[in-house]
Specification:
This protein is an alpha/beta fold. It contains eleven helices and 28 strands. The longest helix has 17 residues. The radius of gyration is 25 Å and the shape is globular.
Length: 499
């Protein structure tokens, strides 16, 4: 049995509004030590110096009928996200942001994105859910898939993008297509009704799925009208939908800028945590699948990441600075230090300024266990890099010991840190280059290159860059406690102080 999508005034691509909605969450723990909680996988830069997130933004922004790109992300990642978009948004596509105070899985993110799209663009606008951390190499095929999915979505279905499996992967979920219920347009099959979603299978089961020709990898991308998604959420996950509505209403009351909604933490905490697959897709009888061959790659762990680098005659893949001798089938990534390897096989070596990973290729899925252990022990190596990005610039911890910490601080032109105070430490600032405007207690003054100032503990202070070049300075902290949480903010340009 098949059914056709009929061209009517309602089902028309040329009058469609498509809102790509990028879900930028998750820690990417299997890609530690490059991926950290506050610098997760979407921000990893690839060989072309574009991040996963930038590629996702471009992928959605250049589609026809797109005038706005929505991003759902954590509040702490907003400014990294804006910086990434600023580099690649050459056509000045409108960007809007829904900011979560903490993680609540994909069902909450999709529900709130659908509420936003319905409010801003109407219930018939197409909600295109995209991931922030996958690769798609064939943009033309992706665009055609989105066009087909949008046609089906206009008929009232949720459409999933099923990837044609190339191997019996056990790390992906699968979608079984009901091939007796195909969906056609212009006498061509463009999709199928979904028979069922299947969790990650064992190898033998995955092989049967591939051999059958009826199963596709679940890409985590979805397309529907906003009203269809909201209706299916209300039907199958009313607890999530009702809590999301309450949070959306409460959050709107707290902002005058609907293009950047920071969700109210108290009501957001009431939204149950669940994935959109469990909450809706596996329960709904109103889901279709578009088979895709779009060059999709999840890049979920270091073995997959290594394939983005070309192999030499010994099967080694080198990204950065390394010398290998009598070594085979290894992947080495090092941005700075020279890595030398002799007589080794089947290893992954990833070096960062503050952490080194060495793993057997067959065990890279367990890198997440290292990440989780660091988190449980309170070791900040799970959370931060040695260089930490902030909305005003960045800082690098050069050295830290008992009762002291030394940082290199870079403040971007016309940016400033919050007006703040520390209880347990004093700070000595030395300007290396640029000009600093300093608030130190009741005084305001300028500090030039090769000059310094001292900030006593308990004193309100602020650092600004009034110039057109980066301000670079060295900060020496000393005191009983030099942790990053010893900070009281009084005023902030980036919304980190609540009124």
């Amino acid at each position: 049995m098949s059914y056709d999508i009929i061209w009517t005034a309602h089902y028309r691509i040329d009058i469609m509004t498509i809102i790509p909605s990028i879900l930028c969450g998750g820690a990417g723990s299997r890609l530690w030590p490059v991926s950290r909680e506050l610098h997760p996988k979407p921000f990893i830069r690839l060989a072309d110096n574009e991040s996963f997130l930038q590629k996702s933004f471009i992928r959605g922004a250049i589609l026809p009928h797109v005038s706005e790109v929505l991003t759902v992300t954590n509040r702490e990642l907003l400014f990294n996200t804006k910086d990434d978009y600023r580099e690649v948004n050459h056509d000045n596509i409108k960007t809007s942001f829904l900011l979560e105070p903490f993680a609540r899985n994909t069902a909450a993110a999709v529900a709130l994105a659908a509420l936003y799209v319905e409010k801003q663009h109407g219930g018939d606008a197409i909600l295109l859910i995209l991931t922030a951390d996958h690769l798609i190499s064939n943009q033309a095929a992706f665009q055609q898939a989105v066009e087909n999915a949008s046609l089906i979505a206009q008929s009232g279905k949720i459409v999933t993008f099923g990837i044609q499996p190339s191997a019996p992967e056990t790390g992906y979920g699968y979608i079984e297509a009901n091939q007796t219920k195909n969906i056609t347009h212009n006498n061509q099959t463009i999709g199928y009704e979904v028979a069922r979603f299947v969790e990650k299978p064992n190898l033998a089961t995955a092989q049967r799925y591939v051999d059958s020709g009826q199963f596709y990898w679940n890409s985590g991308m979805f397309c529907s009208s906003a009203e269809t998604m909201l209706a299916e959420l209300q039907k199958h996950a009313p607890d999530i939908m009702d809590a999301a509505k309450a949070c959306f209403v409460a959050s709107l009351k707290q902002t005058s800028d609907i293009s950047q909604i920071e969700f109210d933490a108290e009501t957001f905490a009431n939204v149950p945590s669940n994935s959109i697959d469990y909450a809706v897709m596996e329960k709904s009888a109103n889901v279709a699948v578009i088979p895709c061959d779009i060059g999709w790659n999840d890049i979920g762990a270091w073995d997959a990441m290594s394939t983005l680098t070309e192999a030499d005659e010994n099967g080694n893949r080198i990204a950065g600075n390394a010398i290998l001798n009598k070594t085979k089938n290894c992947f080495v990534q090092s941005d700075k230090r020279l890595i030398a390897m002799v007589g080794l096989e089947n290893l992954v070596v990833v070096d960062t300024p503050d952490a080194l990973l060495v793993a057997d290729k067959s065990q890279v899925q367990h890198v997440k266990d290292i990440y989780n252990q660091l988190k449980e022990e309170g070791n900040e190596a799970y959370k931060l890099h040695q260089t930490v990005h902030r909305p005003w610039g960045n800082y690098t911890v050069l050295e830290e010991g008992e009762r002291f910490k030394i940082k290199r601080i870079v403040v971007k032109p016309n940016c400033r840190l919050s007006l703040q105070m520390h209880h347990h430490r004093s700070e000595h600032w030395v300007v290396v280059s640029g000009m600093a405007k300093v608030t130190n207690g009741e005084k305001e003054f300028f500090v030039s290159s090769n000059e310094s100032t001292f900030i006593p503990a308990g004193t309100q202070h602020r650092l600004e860059n009034p110039g057109v070049l980066d301000l670079v300075m060295i900060e020496v902290q000393s005191g009983d406690y030099v942790g990053e949480d010893d900070i009281v903010r009084f005023n902030d340009s980036y919304g980190r102080v609540k009124s």
